Amino acid sequence: MPSLRSHIHRLVVKHWFSSKLHPEWPLARQRSHVMHAGSCLPVPPTLRVKTVHAERVPCEWLTFRDHDDGPIFLFLHGGGYCMGAARTHRSLVARLCRRLHGQALLPNYRLAPEHPFPAGLDDAVTAYDWLLAQGVAARRIVLAGDSAGGGLALSTALRIRERGRPMPGALLLLSPWTDLMLTGGSLVTRAERDPMISRAWLAWQADMYCAGRDPATPLISPLYADLRGLPPLVIQVGSDEILFSDADRLMEKAKIAGVRVDFLVGDHMWHGWQMLAGLMPEADSALQSAADRLQRWMSADELPCSALNTLRMV
């Protein structure tokens, strides 16, 4: 059963946060609202934050004093490709790092509509290449993201593969938005269950990001891409998510393509609930489950040809 805190946070999300995520609200006000909400999330007290530039891309570098032997996260924040920043996701990523003794690079990639596709993708690839140039082994990198950032992380892996660059050790996709065509059945069947986002808001964001391009383009909607040759995927989604179908269909396509997959489902959870880690036990459990799966893939001496694991989390 969901915890009392999850019931309280569901109401807060519905009546305070997501009520302002609507096409009728000015984008500038939505950006300010998202920035304020993300900046209020607590961060671990021993976290160290440094501003760095990956070539032309401004980033945050997150470290802990005693954490330097784990993976390096390249984490791409969510926000519909039009809002959000490294600052809004600092709390979430720091808690992932702490669980795996890792560090993280959070790019402030360019946002639509000022910078539509492929600007954000170009920035993500630049940040990845910068990590390699710093001497970070590709096998040590976890390419990660949530929501739109999850889709962008997957598109980044596809672009890396296209260019013949060394692939990261694993991908972590939290509540990923992978289909900007908006064809998933859960957009209808879970519309009333997800308090976070609506189809109308997603369509508005997609229009700004695509800027006239075909939303079925694989690097825009990686659900339509050839997934062969990708590193292991950890996909996490809530059972009440409006984007559940995006994650579920991606898992099925990855399985067919021979990609190793862990598919984690948070029972009774909504889109992006992982952001509430440190405030809600279900979010803490979600991050721990994701960290456990990543630890297995990153530490394996030999990886099987294909594997699929579906886990449900309370």
Write the layout of secondary structure elements.
Elements: H1 4-17, H2 27-39, E1 47-54, E2 57-64, E3 72-76, H3 90-100, E4 103-107, H4 119-133, E5 141-146, H5 148-162, E6 170-174, H6 186-189, H7 199-210, E7 233-238, H8 244-256, E8 261-266, H9 281-299, E9 308-313
Parallel strand pairs: 3-4, 3-5, 5-6, 6-7, 7-8, 8-9
Antiparallel strand pairs: 1-2, 2-4
Helix pairs in contact: 3-9, 4-5
What is the domain tally?
A: 1
State the helix count. Answer: 9
Arithmetic mean pLDDT: 94
Topology-level CATH name: Rossmann fold
Q: Helix- and strand-based class?
A: alpha/beta
**Low-pLDDT windows of residues:** 301-314
What do we call the CATH homologous superfamily?
Alpha/Beta hydrolase fold, catalytic domain
Tally of strands: 9
Features:
disordered C terminus; 314 residues; alpha/beta; Rossmann fold; single chain
Word description of this protein:
The protein has 314 residues and is α/β, with parallel strands linked by helices. It has a single domain (4-313), classed as 3-Layer(aba) Sandwich (Rossmann fold). It is 37% helix and 18% strand. The protein contains 9 helices and 9 strands. It has a 9-stranded mixed beta sheet with strand order 1-2-4-3-5-6-7-8-9, with helices on both faces. Strand 1 and strand 2 (57-64) form a beta hairpin. Helix 3 (90-100) crosses helix 9 and helix 4 packs across helix 5 (148-162). Mean pLDDT is 94; it is low at 301-314.
